[in-house]
């Protein structure tokens, strides 16, 4: 297995523009219009909370995420994903388990990945900054 190539370095000013926060998953369901997405309702410490769409449906049953604390990018510009608003991003790690096999024509097959949502090991207040 090969190590992923590193991205170019950034300076601290660029890093400090990311607003990483802890959020608690209040509700989670399959996205109604996308095969790979979950629609997640988060308590991010604000009165209204927020909704994000997360591409982890292949690795997580929606009910298994409810109540867990996750790390989010809170200042990502909102966008519509298949008709649902996503107001941030849940961070996850992706681990390539095996090199993709090739088919009869020599084309690479699907990669086997394990995706793990970044969680907090001890409860903290929703909205807490991550640094």
Outline the structure in words.
This protein is mainly beta and 131 residues long. The protein has a single domain (15-117), classed as OB fold (Dihydrolipoamide Acetyltransferase, E2P). It has helices spanning 12-15, 62-65, and strands spanning 20-30, 38-43, 50-54, 69-73, 79-81, 84-86, 89-90, 92-98, 112-117. The strands form three sheets. It has a five-stranded antiparallel β-sheet. It has a two-stranded antiparallel ribbon with strand order 5-6. Strands 8-9 form a two-stranded antiparallel ribbon. It is globular and about 55 Å long. The two termini are 30 Å apart. 19% of the residues are buried.
Secondary-structure map:
Elements: H1 12-15, E1 20-30, E2 38-43, E3 50-54, H2 62-65, E4 69-73, E5 79-81, E6 84-86, E7 89-90, E8 92-98, E9 112-117
Antiparallel strand pairs: 1-2, 1-4, 2-3, 4-7, 5-6, 8-9
Task: Put the structure in a nutshell.
By secondary structure, the protein is mainly beta. The chain is built from two helices and nine strands, in the order αβββαββββββ. The relative contact order is 0.25.
Give the key terms.
single chain; 131 residues; mainly beta; OB fold (Dihydrolipoamide Acetyltransferase, E2P); five-stranded antiparallel sheet; two-stranded antiparallel sheet; globular
């Amino acid at each position: 297995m090969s190590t992923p190539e590193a991205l170019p370095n950034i300076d601290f000013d660029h890093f400090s523009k990311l607003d990483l926060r802890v959020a608690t998953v209040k509700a989670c369901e399959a996205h109604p219009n996308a095969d790979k997405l979950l629609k997640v309702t988060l308590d991010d410490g604000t009165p209204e909370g927020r909704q994000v769409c997360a591409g982890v449906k292949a690795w997580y049953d929606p009910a298994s995420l409810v109540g867990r604390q996750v790390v989010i990018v809170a200042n990502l510009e909102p966008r519509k994903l298949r008709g649902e608003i996503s107001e941030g991003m849940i961070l996850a790690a992706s681990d390539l388990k095996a090199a993709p096999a090739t088919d009869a024509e020599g084309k690479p097959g699907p990669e086997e990945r394990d995706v793990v949502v970044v969680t907090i090991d001890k409860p903290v207040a929703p909205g807490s900054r991550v640094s």
